[in-house]
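Please predict the structure of the following assembly.
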Amino acid sequence: MNQGEILSRVAATDGTFRREGPNWVGKCLICNGPLAFDARTGEGATLEHIRARSRGGGQDLANLAVVHDRCNGEKGRRWDPRKRRSQEEYDTFVARLLNRRQERWRDVEPPRKPAPPGRT
Ligand SMILES: [Zn+2]
């Protein structure tokens, strides 16, 4: 899957995002500022792992968010392991973002599959 497809899947489950022509338009999970990206290429946004992979975060949609490039960069600098911020601080920060992601959560209709043959 390319970046545009992954970002589109995340945006589809974020209630602040809507389609506008070729773009998804919504809000950055980190700063809540307006954000738009190209649904095909993902240009204009960055995929955020709310809990970083290096800290045990997964690839499930609930741990992924659409954010500005600059916000992703700032988060990276802020939580640079060399700065030795405490695990507790990091957990508090991550919990806040995961919570915001949950508040915005929107269920997506799963694609309809035809009924399997011979099972009626
Ligand atoms: Zn932002």
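The chain has a mean pLDDT of 91. Helices lie at 3-12, 69-78, 87-104.
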